[in-house]
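Handout, page 2. Input:
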Amino acid sequence: MLDHLGLNVADYERSKAFYRQALAPLGLELLMEPVPGIGGFGTGGKPFFWIATGRGAPHTGVHVAFPVDDRATVDAFHAAALAADGTDNGGPGVRAIYHPNYYGAYVLDPDGNNIEAVCHRPA
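Output:
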């Protein structure tokens, strides 16, 4: 199990706006910005997904998957991420190659990272 994950981003304000909108259907929100250019998203007062600028080159090509409890949330994530100017990288659907109930959706963030919401439960 991971405690937290951080990504370096090219444009903090753009990425912050993207993640605020894209992660809202998952119940995640921006919980803290301890210093300018660093933000922690999470739930229940615990940030576990961080973005930062000025701490090195932006990350690209990273794959981050957020687990959710139902397929409707996967669908809502995908729609919200696209509305936040994300790039479609695989619409909501079953990915039976992983297992029969793997239902996921993929969107590229402003830096080209593959962000996913996934449900492992049957419909």
